[in-house]
Design a protein that fits this description.
With 227 residues, this protein is of the alpha/beta class. It has helices spanning 4-21, 40-48, 59-68, 88-94, 104-113, 142-151, 170-190, 205-211, 220-223, and strands at residues 30-34, 53-56, 76-79, 97-101, 120-126, 155-162, 196-198, 215-218. The chain has an 8-stranded parallel beta sheet with strand order 7-6-5-4-3-2-1-8. The longest helix has 21 residues, at 170-190. The protein is globular, with a radius of gyration of 17 Å. Bound molecules: pyridoxal-5'-phosphate. Residues 34, 36, 57, 80, 163, 201-203, 217-221 line the site of pyridoxal-5'-phosphate (PLP).
């Protein structure tokens, strides 16, 4: 059995390999360790191995972990799951980033509930394959939501996040990642605060990096399978 520290190291190495293969500058991709369903002790192991970026999917579970680990104050916490309006306050008060903003109402509430002068970093989630069952705004609606987020003083627009349709073959998946990259590049020209394109998970992080991802969200490859 490999330890979390060992798996973390392998994940970072394979990221850097993909990064080099894509001829991108060293360290141009961040690794978000997705710790959903995993115990606080697993997060501590990754922390002790030097990791600082963690992602959680469920509000209640995430906030409990953040509060349990308050002493590790240099952890950067990302909320990456579906967000209902009755849970925005807990997210606004506890997380550093929200990657799953997909509605004006949610953006507005996060802004109103955030401590002033401590801006919450926001990614807009894009439903890039226009799947009926999937969260996110359609590509053509990204600009409207970006405009709104930009106008809200307690939010900082940092970029885009996507979860592509997992049923695609490798070529289709690459096409999807490249569509996200194009959308991101276009948006970046209009919003100077944008620097993050969050795409790629355990099974497709190399491809995502080749296509231009700046942050991969990796759970299983670091913490093992979720039961
Ligand atoms: C669970 C999850 C991940 C991590 O998935 P793995 O396949 O375990 O790497 C990434 N992003 C989101 C939004 C998730 O919900």
């Amino acid at each position: 059995m490999e330890t979390i520290a060992e798996r973390l190291k392998s994940a970072l190495e394979s990221l850097e390999q993909a990064n080099q293969k894509a001829n991108r500058a060293p360290n141009s991709v961040q690794l978000l360790a997705v710790s959903k369903t995993k115990p606080v002790s697993d997060i501590v192991q990754a922390y002790e191995a030097g990791h600082r970026l963690f992602g959680e999917n469920y509000v209640q579970e995430g906030v409990e972990k953040i509060q349990a680990l308050q002493e590790l104050s240099d952890i950067q916490w990302h909320f990456i799951g579906p967000l209902q309006s009755n849970k925005t306050k807990m997210v606004a008060e506890n997380f550093d980033w929200v990657q799953s903003v997909e509605r004006a109402k949610i953006a507005q509430r996060l802004n109103d509930q955030r401590t002033p002068h401590k801006r919450l970093n926001v990614l807009i989630q894009v439903n890039i394959n226009a799947e009926e069952s999937k969260a996110g705004v359609l590509p053509e609606d990204v600009d409207d939501l970006a405009n709104l987020v930009k106008s809200l003083p307690n939010l900082k627009l940092r970029g885009l996040m996507a979860i592509p349709n997992a049923a695609q073959n490798e070529e289709q998946l690459m096409q999807t990642f490249l569509q996200m990259k194009a959308l991101y590049t276009q948006l970046r020209q209009n919003y100077s605060s944008i620097d993050t394109l969050s795409m790629g998970m355990s099974n497709d992080m190399q491809q995502a990096v080749l296509a231009g991802s700046t942050m991969v969200r990796v759970g299983t490859a670091i913490f093992g399978a979720r039961t």
